[in-house]
């Protein structure tokens, strides 16, 4: 299964790590440094979005709210650091399919992305 994954994180090291790993497993990563860039990359039709919560320019909550207005069913997995419970509750209210805590294991993250996408495919038929 070759997935197109939009990686949205202001930390270039995380984007680079995930991009290299996803390319290694045959996926098509697309990078964005903030929510505004992520919204601009939606025409590339990602299958799943990995979305960091705390970013400059446009944070994860604002990006998710804007995303839901135009792409209400696109699977989103939120990446967050420990202690951001309030942000997670806001994200869940906007409709996310999962969350991962930083720091994360890339193998476990890959498995989570696959599970979320498979569930989404079954839902949309």
Task: Write up this protein.
The chain is an alpha/beta fold and 125 residues long. The chain has one domain: Rossmann fold. 47% of the residues lie in helices and 21% in strands. The chain is built from 5 helices and 5 strands; from the N terminus they run βαβαβαβαβα. It has helices at 12-24, 35-40, 60-70, 85-94, 106-124; strands at 4-8, 28-32, 48-52, 76-81, 98-102. A 5-stranded parallel β-sheet has the order 2-1-3-4-5. Helix 3 packs parallel to helix 4 (85-94). The two termini are 17 Å apart.
In short:
This protein has 5 helices and 5 strands, in the order βαβαβαβαβα. It has helices at 12-24, 35-40, 60-70, 85-94, 106-124, and strands spanning 4-8, 28-32, 48-52, 76-81, 98-102.
Summarize the biggest pleated sheet. Answer: 5 strands, parallel
The helix-and-strand class reads alpha/beta
| Largest sheet: spatial strand order | 2-1-3-4-5
Mean pLDDT: 94
* N-end to C-end Cα span: 17 Å
Number of helices: 5
CATH class: Alpha Beta
CATH architecture: 3-Layer(aba) Sandwich
Work out the radius of gyration. 13 Å
CATH topology: Rossmann fold
Number of strands: 5
CATH H-level superfamily title: Response regulator
Note the beta-strand portion.
Answer: 15-25%
Number of structural domains: 1
Order of helices and strands: EHEHEHEHEH
Roughly how much helix do the residues carry, as a percent range?
Answer: 40-55%
- Apparent shape: globular
Low-confidence parts lasting 5 or more residues at pLDDT below 50? none
